[in-house]
Design goal:
Blueprint lengths: L10 H13 L6 H12 L6 H12 L6 H12 L7 E2 L8 E2 L13 H9 L1 H14 L7 H11 L8 E10 L4 E2 L1 H11 L8 E8 L2 E6 L5 H15 L5 E6 L3 E3 L1 H4 L4 H11 L9 H11 L10 E5 L8 H14 L2 E6 L12 H6 L5 E4 L3 H13 L2
Parallel strand pairs: 6-7, 6-9, 9-10, 10-11
Antiparallel strand pairs: 1-2, 3-5, 4-5, 7-8
Helix pairs in contact: 1-2, 2-3, 7-9, 12-13
Length: 378
C-alpha cells in the first residue's frame, strides 16, 4: 500500500469528488458522499483500486452514469493524463490512468504495486497535506484554486438549539394531551400510557462577517471560498463582506457554479481592498439585519486581522451588543498563525473582551479546525 503520514489528509479531497460528479451531471447526494468516505476509511484511501471501487459502489446508482463517473475519476484524481487505460473488472468502464494499464479486478502484482506507488494518488496525499499547511498569503492563484476544491469537502455544522415547537416522542418532558384525549375516546375507559412530546431541535444560524479590506487582500479570496463551501453545506448561513461598508453576499454565493458565485460576490463588494471600518460595519449589521432574526441566538464568526481605521470605542460598543444577541462570537484572525501572536492592534484590543474564542484562519488546516470548533460548541 502507498504510505502517507495520515490517510485523513485525503478526506477533504475525497469528499470534494462528490462535487466533481455533480458538476458532471451525476445525481450524487450528501448521504452518498458520506458513505463513500466512511467506506473508504475502512480500506486504504491511498490505493487507486479502493478509491475507484468504493466511489463506484457508493456514488453511482445508474449503469448509464458509469462513463461519466470514469471520466470524472480520471479528471479529479489523475489529472486526465492521457490515452492510457486503467482496465476495470468489466470492459465497459475504462478509466484513464498514468504510466501503466492496471487491472482493477485483481490484487496488484509487484509491478502494478510499484506503479500504484508512483501514481498521482500517492503524490496527491503529499500535495494535499502541503496545501493544508500552507499559508494563504504564500499561495499562487493555482494553489488557491486547488484549495477551493479541497474546501468543497469541508462539512461545517452548527450546534443545535431547542425551539418552541414540539414533536411527538416516546420520551418527552411534556404530555401530549390532544393525543391522549383522542386515544381515550377511541379506546373507551382503557388505561393507556400518556403520549409525550419534546421540543424540536434545529441547527443554529451561522453568520460570517468577512473583512475584504486592503490589509486582508492575501486572505480575502480563500475566506470567500470558505464561505461558499459553508453556504452550500448543512448549516443555515448568512454571509457579509465589509471594508468601509457592509455588503450582503448570501444570494451571490447561492449560485451552484463556484466560479460564477465568487465573481458575483466580488462584483457586489464595491469597497474591495479598501479601508477598514470594522466598528461601523458591525453596527450597520446590527441596525439592518439583527432585527430580522439573523443574529439572535446565532453563531457569529468575524474574519478580520483587526486593523481598525475607525474609532475603537465604536467597535467595542458594537461588539458588546453583538455578544449580547449572539449565541457565540468567534473571531478568526489570519495573523494568529503561531503561539507568539499578541493582539496588539487597537481593533483587536477593543473587540477581544467581547469575543468568546479567538482562532487562526491562515491556512486550510486552521479553517478545518474552525469547522470542528463550530460543531462542538455547546
Amino acid at each position: 500500500m502507498v504510505e502517507v503520514e495520515s490517510a485523513a489528509a485525503l478526506l477533504p479531497a475525497l469528499a470534494g469528488f462528490g462535487r466533481e460528479l455533480r458538476a458532471a451531471g451525476l445525481p450524487v447526494g450528501t448521504g452518498q458522499v458520506l458513505s463513500f468516505c466512511r467506506g473508504l476509511a475502512l480500506l486504504d484511501p491511498t490505493d487507486l483500486r479502493d478509491v475507484y471501487w468504493s466511489g463506484r459502489a457508493c456514488l453511482v446508482s445508474r449503469h448509464d452514469d458509469l462513463a461519466a463517473y470514469d471520466a470524472a475519476f480520471a479528471r479529479y484524481f489523475l489529472g486526465d493524463p492521457g490515452p492510457q487505460v486503467l482496465v476495470a473488472a468489466d470492459s465497459e468502464s475504462p478509466v484513464n490512468a498514468p504510466r501503466a494499464a492496471l487491472d482493477l479486478s485483481a490484487p496488484p502484482t509487484g509491478n502494478e504495486h510499484r506503479a500504484l506507488a508512483d501514481a498521482p494518488v500517492g503524490h496527491a496525499a503529499s500535495d494535499v497535506e502541503l496545501l493544508r499547511a500552507k499559508d494563504f498569503a504564500d499561495c499562487d492563484p493555482d494553489e488557491l484554486a486547488a484549495i477551493g476544491r479541497l474546501m468543497a469537502g469541508l462539512v461545517v455544522a452548527t450546534p443545535m438549539r431547542r425551539t418552541r415547537r414540539t414533536v411527538r416522542a416516546r420520551k418527552g418532558v411534556r404530555p401530549d394531551l390532544r393525543r391522549a384525549l383522542r386515544a381515550q375516546v377511541r379506546h373507551g375507559a382503557s388505561v393507556l400510557p400518556i403520549p409525550r412530546r419534546r421540543h424540536r431541535l434545529r441547527p443554529r444560524r451561522l453568520v460570517l462577517l468577512l473583512d475584504v479590506s486592503g490589509s486582508m487582500s492575501s486572505y480575502s479570496r480563500a475566506l470567500l471560498q470558505f464561505a461558499y463551501a459553508v453556504a452550500h453545506g448543512p448549516a443555515r448561513v448568512e454571509v457579509f463582506c465589509f471594508g468601509t461598508r457592509l455588503t450582503h453576499i448570501s444570494s451571490a454565493l447561492a449560485r451552484r457554479d463556484p466560479d460564477e458565485a465568487l465573481r458575483q460576490a466580488a462584483d457586489a463588494v464595491v469597497d474591495w481592498e479598501g479601508g477598514t471600518r470594522i466598528g461601523d460595519s458591525v453596527r450597520e449589521y446590527l441596525r439592518s439585519w439583527a432585527w430580522r432574526g439573523a443574529c439572535r441566538g446565532a453563531v457569529v464568526v468575524v474574519c478580520s486581522d483587526g486593523l481598525e481605521r475607525g474609532d475603537p470605542d465604536l467597535l467595542a460598543g458594537a461588539m458588546a451588543r453583538l455578544r449580547r444577541l449572539a449565541y457565540r462570537v468567534i473571531w478568526v484572525n489570519p495573523l494568529k498563525s503561531g503561539p507568539a501572536y499578541e493582539p496588539a492592534t487597537r481593533g483587536m484590543q477593543a473587540a477581544l473582551p467581547h469575543v468568546d474564542l479567538l482562532v487562526s484562519g491562515h491556512n486550510l488546516a486552521s479553517l478545518a479546525d474552525l469547522g470542528a470548533v463550530l460543531e462542538s460548541l455547546s
